[in-house]
């Protein structure tokens, strides 16, 4: 039974956490950043999804995510447990609760906002066509602006979500994934 | 349509068929026959490739021809479709894509069954997935039949029948021989072709108006005969309150249905991680958003340059607006440019239909083999045989779709797609969201959520003016119409959610804390994901 504490963590802003790693299909890899010590372990594990930068983002931002506490601080002393207990334990850990609340704090208001905005748009278009027909500039009327506004908010929310997930969630989720997998491996008696 | 158009279009289309069959055989060379490979293409696609493939799966002929045609005929009301089809992707991005990638293996039922008693949940989710897929498939087959009739001049019944059969046979070949890998590459090729064609036409429209969008809109409004009203909502859905509620119903179905479409969900399993799934959705939102913006320009362009009267004369539903626009942009019916552009648009439309039906057939054969067959058979067998079942299921689904496609050939395509979205939103979305986010959700709740959405949505369609009681119905001579709306979403989507809640609170089963923890941890971290 061993915990994952002997594995170097990326969340401390270590050199291996730089953002120019790209996930390559079938063989995720991590390049050593110039200037990094050579003893940084390379993960040849296809599960290790390197933090890649997304659209329209400067790559350096990805390293800015704040660090989170690990699931377990020391190796557990109790006998091996079932995998289900591991998941319960991870679920109750502060690190997981933080990831979950970061996800929910973004997604909850965002879903409510775009859904209300969309329903308001559809209902107004069907019930108040005269309001929508009011001209704004040239041939462009309120309805045109509202429709293009839907496109615009969709693009903006997509960008904001991708950015939020990459900066606020991805690193912590990856840490948790490692910890959880090591714990479940331990729970199954060290096999595989 | 002259013989030149037909020849050029046929040559281009045959090229596409040859290329896609080439892809299928090339991909099939190194086939190992594993379920991973057949359903998920080995999970090795990059986010960009998958983003293009998702757009290819989503941008159907109903969008390309149908929405532009609706805009050409009804102006602003057609644009409402574009908005709904795009905004729906926010539901997918925020609530579904990453979590489903982390929790599931091949199908929607995988996600739900992870927390529940597996057999009843798999049967329920598998049944609703197959129902949605078959509805969507019928819509595309009907579209293929009428397109050929319209574009190639083959107005005889025999030409339409043989087109539907031909499209069905091709999609069965793609899917059963090539699996997900071939299907994905076909989607990518098709998405590039479709976007390329759309960009070219949009540029030509804007060049014709010297980049002056205001003049484009004014010309369209003048030519339509409706004046300013053409640029405001109300021409198509502004009549009585029934048609207004019908539109709200359709709007809800569009925005909530996408996240429940089986062939869209199965695309997230073709990438290695949840992060890759998110990035592929970001790609596809960019591509799909750009595409729908361009269909708006094409629609108003067709209204301005071709005119609603000419469009309506060619096809009452407006499906030929874009081909007619291409003919005009190329220099007219007798010119070489017109012939070439027309042929390109026709070939792109065929490619679109072929690729979309292949994607849906694959997803539904996965549901049949992985969910229904695996739950209903008695003893365990090797995964290899599950893939064999999926190949056979693809043939069976192809046959069913051909049969229904021939039966329903007179129904409007965009409308049939709306029905598929309504059923997906009612039967698949509630159970998916509940099992991802509700701690107390139980097996009974899951089963009730699926059937509580599926049965009302299908029943309401049967009792609606679509099936009987109006001159445009499937059976115009009969009258058992008791539900006024054409789209059931407004009623059946809330029913699906209520049924899931009711099943859960009345269930004696105590929700399993540990399995909920497992779903939640896995969905947000990707631990244990395949």
Automatic annotation (TrEMBL), chain A:
InterPro entries (alphabetical): DUF485
Annotated spans, Disordered: 1-26
Lineage start: Bacteria, Bacillati, Actinomycetota, Actinomycetes, Kitasatosporales
Protein keywords: Membrane, Transmembrane, Transmembrane helix
PANTHER family to which the protein is assigned, alphabetical: INTEGRAL MEMBRANE PROTEIN-RELATED, MEMBRANE PROTEIN
Organism from which the protein derives: Streptomyces hyderabadensis
Record-annotated membrane-spanning stretches: 106-124, 136-162
Protein name: DUF485 domain-containing protein
Automatic annotation (TrEMBL), chain B:
Domain of life: Bacteria
Transmembrane intervals: 6-27, 80-100, 121-139, 159-177, 189-209, 247-269, 281-306, 340-366, 387-407, 413-434, 446-467, 487-505
InterPro entries recorded: Na/Glc_symporter_sf, Na/solute_symporter, Sodium:Solute_Symporter
Keyword annotations: Cell membrane, Membrane, Symport, Transmembrane, Transmembrane helix, Transport
Pfam families reported for this sequence: SSF (PF00474)
Family assignment from sequence similarity: Belongs to the sodium:solute symporter (SSF) (TC 2.A.21) family.
Protein name: Cation acetate symporter
Taxon lineage: Bacteria, Bacillati, Actinomycetota, Actinomycetes, Kitasatosporales
């Amino acid at each position: 039974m061993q915990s994952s504490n002997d594995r170097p963590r990326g969340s401390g802003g270590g050199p291996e956490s730089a953002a120019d790693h790209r996930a390559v299909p079938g063989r995720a890899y991590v390049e050593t950043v110039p200037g990094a010590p050579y003893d940084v372990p390379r993960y040849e594990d296809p599960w290790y999804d390197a933090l890649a930068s997304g659209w329209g983002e400067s790559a350096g931002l990805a390293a800015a995510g704040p660090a989170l506490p690990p699931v377990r601080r020391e190796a557990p002393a109790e006998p091996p447990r079932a995998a289900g207990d591991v998941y319960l334990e991870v679920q109750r850990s502060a690190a997981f609760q933080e990831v979950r609340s970061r996800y929910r704090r973004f997604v909850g208001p965002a879903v409510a906002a775009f859904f209300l905005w969309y329903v308001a748009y559809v209902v107004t278009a069907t019930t108040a066509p005269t309001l929508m027909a009011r001209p704004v500039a040239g041939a462009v009327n309120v309805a045109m602006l509202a429709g293009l506004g839907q496109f615009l908010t969709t693009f903006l929310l997509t960008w904001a979500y991708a950015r939020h997930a990459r900066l606020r969630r991805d690193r912590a989720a990856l840490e948790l994934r490692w910890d959880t997998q090591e714990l479940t491996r331990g729970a199954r008696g060290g096999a595989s | 349509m002259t013989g030149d158009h037909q020849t050029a279009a046929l040559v281009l289309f045959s090229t596409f068929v040859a290329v896609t069959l080439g892809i299928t055989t090339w991909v099939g060379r190194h086939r190992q026959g594993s379920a991973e490979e057949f359903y998920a293409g080995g999970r090795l696609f990059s986010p960009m490739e998958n983003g293009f493939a998702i757009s290819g799966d989503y941008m159907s002929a109903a969008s390309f021809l149908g929405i532009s045609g609706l805009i050409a005929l009804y102006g602003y009301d057609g644009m409402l479709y574009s908005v709904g089809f795009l905004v729906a992707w926010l539901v997918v991005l925020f609530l579904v894509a990453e979590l489903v990638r982390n929790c599931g293996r091949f199908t929607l039922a995988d996600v739900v069954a992870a927390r529940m008693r597996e057999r009843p949940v798999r049967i329920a989710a598998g049944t609703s997935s197959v129902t949605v897929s078959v509805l969507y498939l019928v819509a595309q087959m009907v579209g293929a039949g009428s397109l050929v009739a319209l574009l190639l001049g083959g107005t005889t019944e025999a030409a339409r029948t043989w087109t539907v059969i031909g499209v069905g046979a091709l999609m069965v070949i793609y899917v059963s021989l090539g699996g997900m890998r071939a299907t994905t590459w076909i989607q990518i090729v098709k998405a590039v072709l479709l976007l390329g064609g759309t960009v070219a036409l949009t540029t030509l429209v804007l060049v014709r108006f010297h980049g002056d969008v205001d003049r484009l809109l004014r010309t369209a409004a003048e030519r339509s005969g409706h004046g300013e009203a053409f640029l405001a909502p109300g021409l198509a859905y502004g009549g009585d309150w029934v048609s207004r509620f019908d539109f709200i119903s359709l709007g809800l179905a569009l925005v909530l249905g996408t996240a429940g479409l089986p062939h869209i969900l199965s695309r997230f399993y073709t990438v290695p991680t949840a992060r890759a799934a998110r990035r592929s959705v970001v790609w596809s939102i960019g591509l799909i958003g750009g595409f729908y913006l361009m269909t708006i320009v094409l629609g108003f362009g067709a209204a301005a340059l071709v005119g609603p009267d000419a469009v309506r004369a060619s096809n009452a539903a407006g499906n030929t607006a874009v081909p007619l626009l291409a003919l005009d942009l190329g220099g007219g019916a007798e010119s070489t440019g017109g012939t070439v552009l027309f042929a390109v648009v026709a070939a792109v439309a065929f490619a679109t239909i072929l690729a979309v039906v292949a994607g849906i057939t694959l997803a539904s054969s996965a549901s049949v083999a992985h969910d229904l067959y695996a739950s209903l058979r008695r003893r365990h067998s090797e995964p290899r045989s599950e893939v064999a079942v999926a190949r056979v299921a693809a043939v069976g689904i192809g046959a069913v779709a051909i049969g229904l496609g021939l039966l329903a050939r007179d129904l409007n395509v965009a409308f049939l797609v709306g029905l598929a979205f309504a059923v997906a939103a009612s039967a698949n979305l509630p159970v998916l969201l509940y099992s991802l986010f509700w701690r107390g959700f139980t097996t009974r709740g899951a089963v009730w959520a699926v059937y509580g959405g599926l049965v009302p949505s299908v029943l309401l369609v049967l009792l609606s003016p679509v099936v009987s009681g109006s001159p445009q119905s499937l059976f115009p001579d009969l009258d058992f119409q008791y539900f006024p709306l054409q789209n059931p979403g407004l009623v059946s989507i809330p029913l699906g959610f209520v049924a899931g809640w009711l099943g859960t609170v009345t269930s004696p089963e105590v929700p399993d804390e540990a399995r909920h923890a497992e779903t939640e941890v896995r969905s947000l971290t990707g631990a244990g994901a395949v």
